[in-house]
Design goal:
Elements (H helix, E strand, L loop, with lengths): L31 H37 L2 H8 L3 H14 L4
Helix pairs in contact: 1-2, 1-3, 2-3
Amino acid sequence: MTSPGVLTPVATPGYSCRAVTTSGKGRDVTTWRERHDAAVRKQEAAQQAYQEATDERAQALIDGEAELGSQAAVARELGVTRAGINRAINALKNKQPRA
């Protein structure tokens, strides 16, 4: 136990006076709302990147189907199920506008 009147160091990142922050000052204090909003922006960017990668993968599977002749051949080549290939391709086709 510490004796009364003895100060203990604060080690939380947002409030440590010794930590060098992005502004170069000894302390950058952000509110919980600012941290929340920054996290939401990161989540949105990650979701967008995930969706783009998913679409690119599905397009690659479509190209593989054209090259190898069937979804089953693509699945065998990749070592996955044909159902997974079919779901990915159908998801992309359902997103695209119909002519």
